[in-house]
Each structure stands twice: as C-alpha cells, then as structure tokens.
C-alpha cells in the first residue's frame, strides 16, 4: 500500500500505522462495549424522566455515537497520522459535552443551551479543525492543554460528595488516553488497544453513573430523599447554588428549617435528625426552587416512593 502523503489527508497507507485500524478481536470488543453502553443509556433515560437532565442525556447518546464512529473509522477509511490525531482530539473534546450540557441544565435556557454545547465542541476542537483544513501535522499548544486540565478538574469536582463520584474519574482517564501528544507521558504507546481501553474506561464510568443513580435506601425519606436525589443528579455546582438560594429565601420567611448537604434539619435542634416532612411555607419555597430543574410529577414520584410521615412539621 501507499504511505501517507505529506498533506495530512486520508490516503492509502499501511494499516499497522493507523491508530484506529483495530484488529478484528478488538473490533468485536468495541462493538460489544457500544451495544452495552446503548442499553445502559436506555435504562438511564428512565431515571431522568421529568428532569432537565434529559437534555444532557441526549449529549451522552451523541458522545456514544461519535466514539463508535471514531473507533471504526480506521476500518472504513485509511487515515494519515494527522487526521488520526485530529479525530482523537475531537473525541476527547466530545467527552466534555455532557458535562457542559449539565452546566446549562436549568429552565428556561436548557433548550437553547444545546447551541452553547455545540459551540463549545467546535471551539474546543479548533486544533483538530485547523490541522485537517491545513493538511499539516496535529499540534496542541500549552493553552489548549491548560483548558483540558481545567475541564477535567471541573467535571471531576462537580461529582464529589455525591453518589456518582467515581464516574468522572473513569471518563477523565479515558479522555487522557486519547490525547494525541501528551506532555505528561511521552512514552504513551500508540496502539489500537489504547483507543479500546479509553472506550472501556468510558463504559465503566457510565456503569458507575447508572449504579449511583439507583433508588436511594429507605433511610432517606420524604423531602430529604428528594434533595439527595436532586443533589446526586445535578452535581455539586447546581446543588450549592440551590442551597444558597434556599438559605437566602428562608431567612426572609423566618423558617426554622435548614438545608444541609445531606438533607433538611431543624434550626434549633441539638442533633442532626433529617426531616421527612417540611412546614408548608418551606415546602412551597423548595418546590419553587426545584421547578427550574424538575417537573412537579418528578417531585411527587420521589415523595410517593418513601414511607414518609403524612404530617407536616409545624412551624
């Protein structure tokens, strides 16, 4: 076969030089991972019904499609090293799209936020677009690596202190394996197995997300259950923002209920017994804050799933 040309375009080349020209055995592994991920995403969708995170789920599906196409690109086309590295960077950048989508998951801007996510991916993939358009070798500057590290830290920190804390660690590890020219690991092997390994790490992250969003144990009841489910789904940034708003608004209402990271407690209580029911004015406040993120039916379903006491805490 012909060797890759200097213009960086896809040409006839030795398939052993192509990162995405994975052997048949690894092809079957990647195909199996894609099928399992698709099934997990279908199951995950049921747990996001009635929330704005359904729009984030769409970007998870999109990421799976992009990852699958990128893995199998080498079997459909013979790619030069520059195009191969550009595809790896675009796939790495696409891995951030679900996280960026969650950053804008708030009504009423959650629908228009899709354009922000798409714009982010186009801009984050600028080094790849420039390499493909100019037909030159792919290079990543220090500024882009700094942006990569910042996004990795943000997406990991946004799940800390939640039940899905492990998911972004696996996803981030897979993204780092896709880096075309890592400054931190010059001896990173350039082999087809590395792409499949990144795919596997992403799949493990999806599994960790699915398991972390399983129904809460019976120890979490009533409105404390609602808050913990919201916290684990929306992440640290939105949870802290809602907690701050609750504190500000509850001061005006002179309520005796406080919202902590793990649930609602009485302001004058000596211990930390989490409340199952809330005073009427506090419940109204919480519903108003949550309506930007979830439907009324989602709240009612969460409350109905518990054995919370029927009475309200008197003010």
Task: Quote the average pLDDT.
Answer: 81
- Secondary-structure element string: HHHHHHHHHHEEHH
Number of strands: 2
For the largest sheet, list the strands in their spatial order. Answer: 1-2
Radius of gyration (Å):
23 Å
Helix content: 55-70%
Bin the strand percentage: under 5%
Count of separate DSSP helical elements: 12
Please outline the major beta sheet. 2 strands, antiparallel
Q: Tell me the count of domains.
A: 2
End-to-end separation: 81 Å
Class of secondary structure makeup: mainly alpha
Unreliable sequence segments: 1-19, 307-315
The coarse overall form would be elongated
Overview of the structural elements:
The protein is mainly alpha-helical and about 325 residues long. The chain has 2 domains: about 15-210; about 220-305, no CATH class. Helices cover about 60% and strands about 5% of the residues. It has 12 helices and 2 strands. Strands 1-2 form a two-stranded antiparallel sheet. A hairpin with a 2-residue loop joins strand 1 and strand 2 (about 265). Helix 10 crosses helix 11 (about 280-290). The radius of gyration is 23 Å and the shape is elongated. The N and C termini lie far apart (about 80 Å). The relative contact order is 0.11.
